[in-house]
Design a protein that fits this description.
Elements: H1 8-19, H2 24-33, H3 40-43, H4 55-67, H5 78-104, H6 109-113
Helix pairs in contact: 2-4
Length: 120
């Protein structure tokens, strides 16, 4: 399968994962929490502000607080999610083309040969 180029939103999460040393699970948790990848730098300054927790711990704390579980059930990297979405999109496109081909197929010749009843 050819390599899928990420869109801007996905690329922002990939960059944030590298910049802030997050795992795939922590990125997924942050996404589910609705965090903005561009704003993670303001949260991740625990060296300058010692009362703050490190970003990975903070994300895990918020995730547990909101969802009541330590980790997501199924962990996917951003790249794996892109591949799954591309496969799903291709499958839907094929199904749509198949439905369209069936709808555009001409009706059976027997149905066309029968005369229509005239209205009185």
């Amino acid at each position: 399968m050819k390599k899928i180029k990420p869109d801007q939103k996905s690329q922002a999460w990939i960059d944030a994962r590298k910049r802030h040393h997050l795992s795939h699970a922590q990125v997924q948790m942050a996404r589910e929490l609705g965090m903005n990848p561009k704003k993670l730098g303001g949260i991740d300054n625990h060296r300058q502000e010692p009362w703050k927790a490190p970003l990975p711990e903070f994300i895990q704390y918020l995730y547990f607080k909101r969802f009541g579980k330590e980790r997501p059930d199924a962990i996917l990297s951003v790249e794996a999610k892109l591949e799954l979405d591309a496969e799903k999109k291709a499958r839907k496109r094929e199904e749509k083309q198949a439905r369209k081909a069936v709808a555009e197929a001409p009706a059976s010749p027997a149905a066309e040969a029968q005369p229509r009843p005239s209205e009185p």
